[in-house]
């Protein structure tokens, strides 16, 4: 029997909450299959990679924005075009001009360069002390993890730099004018709510010039999320 695939999403307009339900159904089918957790963790194939890196973050965006008066339809497109999904919106908030009737979503990930090594250790059932202290030995190729001591909020500062670098990279690409950038953050530690807020404040203060309609940031491992609105030249409205 063939495994889960994403063909029924590609190029099809799907009501937003139904889109989320279908994506989660695919996720659960893979998770509960043989070696499913490992396949998802290691992004073994194109289905797992696109599911984790594109479709699940889009679901987070839809569920954060969907509300009475703002109903969302999603069309995910599998290809090399300069966006990952098209959205159409309807409802009273759209009628009043509070929300755009259409737009595009581009999904990107902000993470430490050693994140894949952390996932490799976890997949092998070995302990991990933190992403900064993980390295692969040149000779043995074995992945080692050592504790790293943080001082005050230096872990927030270092991750902020990674987020801003990724946004700057994306800001240099010519996306459609109505594009929202969705940034999935694979954080370098477990962030308390006040630490997430501090990270968002620092990202907001350092935002590069960009033309995105909105920048939506989410923590991949918690409910933390934040939006910056407006086409800006160094500043943006925050919500």
Question: Can you put this structure into words, describing what you see?
Answer:
- There is one protein chain.
- It contains seven helices and ten strands.
- The chain is of the alpha+beta class and 239 residues long.
- The protein has two domains: 13-99, no CATH class; 151-238.
- The strands form two sheets. The protein has an eight-stranded mixed β-sheet with strand order 1-2-3-4-7-8-9-10.
- The longest helix is centred in the N-terminal third of the chain and has 20 residues, at 46-65.
SSE topology sketch:
Elements lengths: L12 E3 H16 L4 H7 L3 H20 L5 E6 L8 E6 L1 H4 L6 E10 L3 H9 L10 E3 L6 E3 L8 H18 L7 E8 L6 H14 L7 E6 L5 E5 L7 E2 L1
Parallel strand pairs: 4-7, 7-8
Antiparallel strand pairs: 1-2, 2-3, 3-4, 5-6, 8-9, 9-10
Which properties best describe this structure?
single chain; about 240 residues; alpha+beta; 2 domains; eight-stranded mixed sheet; two-stranded antiparallel sheet; 10 strands; about 35% helix; about 20% strand; globular
């Amino acid at each position: 029997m063939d495994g889960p695939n994403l063909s029924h999403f590609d190029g099809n307009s799907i009501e937003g909450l139904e889109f989320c339900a279908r994506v989660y159904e695919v996720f659960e089918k893979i998770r509960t299959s043989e070696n499913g957790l490992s396949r998802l963790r290691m992004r073994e194939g194109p289905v797992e990679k696109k599911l984790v890196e594109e479709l699940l973050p889009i679901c987070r965006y839809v569920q954060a924005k969907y509300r009475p008066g703002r109903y969302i339809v999603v069309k995910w497109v599998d290809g090399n075009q300069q966006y990952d999904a098209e959205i159409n919106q309807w409802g009273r908030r759209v009628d009043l001009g509070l929300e755009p009737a259409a737009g595009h979503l581009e999904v990107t990930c902000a993470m430490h360069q050693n994140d894949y090594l952390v996932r490799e250790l976890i997949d092998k059932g070995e302990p991990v002390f933190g992403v900064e202290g993980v390295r692969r030995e040149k000779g043995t190729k074995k992945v080692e993890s050592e504790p790293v001591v943080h001082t005050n909020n230096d872990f927030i500062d270092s991750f902020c730099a990674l987020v801003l670098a990724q946004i700057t990279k994306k800001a240099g690409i010519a996306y459609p004018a109505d594009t929202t950038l969705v940034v999935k953050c694979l954080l370098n530690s477990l962030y308390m709510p006040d630490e997430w807020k501090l990270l968002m404040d620092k990202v907001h203060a350092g935002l590069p010039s960009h033309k995105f309609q909105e920048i939506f940031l989410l923590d991949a491992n918690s409910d933390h999320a934040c939006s910056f609105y407006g086409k800006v030249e160094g500043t943006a409205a925050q919500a």
